[in-house]
Predict the structure.
Amino acid sequence: MSCQHTVDVGAYLFGSLDIKERSAFERHLGSCDACQAEMLRLAPLPGLLGRLSLDDVEHLDEIPECPPEPNRHRRVLVLCAAVLLVLALAGGVLLLTPPPAPTWASHDQRTGVDASVSMVTKSWGTEMWFQFGNVKPGARCKVMVFDRAGQREIGGWWGSSHAADERIPGSTSFRVDQIDRLEVSDETGLLVTLRP
């Protein structure tokens, strides 16, 4: 996925946007995965560049002809930082990429219900985004989340009168790696079970 505003991330990080541009970009950033990923990738650059002095930058291409000086270690570090900077700016190195959200999907033969869930790890547990097909409209649905230790909790309630492509939110205090299964049901009983 790409976005035409990812070119603004560098200007934002280095404080080059005026107040109006900065405000507009911050509003956009909250809803754009591509710009958020680019922000994570480029976030270390201002700190790395802040460590370089003008003298360091001017002498990056100098290679000592005589035995190494005592500050050789510092020059090597500066040179490595400059190489990393060039690679990061060229898009050749992804410094930080968030792991993809695991997705589970299932079809229940008995009820005919199709379901999928994308799960996002959070500091407080797991955020879940469901999509359903062939659910009877007008029902109240809920999801029960079961962990591997045998505990369970309700992960959300919703009405089934939704569009087929609508994403329905849910959440649980269990981490993704602790979840054994998700059971979705309505007033008539179990509709579908989702497992890894």
Observations:
- The longest strand covers residues 114-122.
- Strands lie at 103-107, 114-122, 125-133, 140-147, 152-159, 168-172, 179-186, 189-194.
